[in-house]
Amino acid sequence: MLNSTDLNNSLSALIESIIHKWSGKEEAISKLSYGAILVVLEMTLTLLSIILNLVVIISIREKESLLNSTLNLLLGNLCFSNLLAAVFVKSIAIIYNGYAVTSEKWSVELAFCMVYTLSSRATWAVLPYTILVLSWLFVVNRATRILGFLFPTSKKKGDSPQSSTIDIELEILKASESEECSKDEEYQNEELEEEFNGIDGLGIIQKSILGFIWFVSLVYSLLSPQYSTRTPTRASFDISSSEDFHHTSNHLPHYSKLTYALMVILTLIFILEYPFNMFFYVIGNTHILLIPLFSILMRKDILQAALSVFSQNSVASQKEDDITFEQFQTHCGMGVNPT
């Protein structure tokens, strides 16, 4: 069976052959050069991930309808977790991994860093619990609709039989009309429904969901053996392996096809991420880059919000809306009058 050492040596030989073909030189690459290449790759990954995560967070923050949607709120929270991992985890991992390569050691004797361990375990746990919450929101939404279809006789107080009959007829008419719509129109309606879900503001359910995710993640980080024993630890090659009900219809998303695909991609990233963490340095940290990238590509509302926020017209209009201090004083009636 191929162990992690053999796999690492195979990957190193593959990368060395690629560098030889690219540079046209057959000389052996020194470990110092390997360390420099590793640091550059990790810093590039960190910089790109910070930019993409900030794009998603700012886009959701600037557009209120996206901020109030539970689905987009969870994606924004996931990108915020990736941003913390890039700043507090990846920056420290670059030092550990670069020193391990340049010193030609599989494991490195370095002092234990509390910030690294706690932040890496906490931010890494946010991903699976976010996937779990997204799945359960879909299940609860579907179950509520099925129960509402199976028990249509439940009426509010004060409803007359005539009004209930009219409601049923309207539902039948709406169902017949929806069947006649094309698939493209149905897909657009699904996306609009996702976008304007939760338009009444950040509710108790959304706050509870975010609190649950971060509470469980922090508990998981505190269960670290290094934190409980408070003893120095060996920073080895797999140092990044630890890295990283009341129904309210306004906050239960109706997922589109692209959203289903995004959930599958998030699950695959989580499943494939952990074994890659144990084998190679850079590949195991790609989740902080892939998650915001797929969130932008597969969520049209986030993509449109990002384009509108970071476009030149938006920046120019924002500059036009800016006022000087004298204009602010004049507007507030503070005694400064233009002549």
TrEMBL record:
It comes from the Eukaryota. It is found in: Membrane. The chain crosses the membrane at residues 32-60, 72-96, 122-140, 255-272. Residues 52-116 form the G-protein coupled receptors family 1 profile domain. Keywords: Membrane, Transmembrane, Transmembrane helix. The keyword Transmembrane helix applies. One of its GO terms (cellular component) is membrane. InterPro entries: GPCR_Rhodpsn_7TM. The keyword Cell inner membrane does not apply. This is G-protein coupled receptors family 1 profile domain-containing protein. It comes from Caligus rogercresseyi (Sea louse).
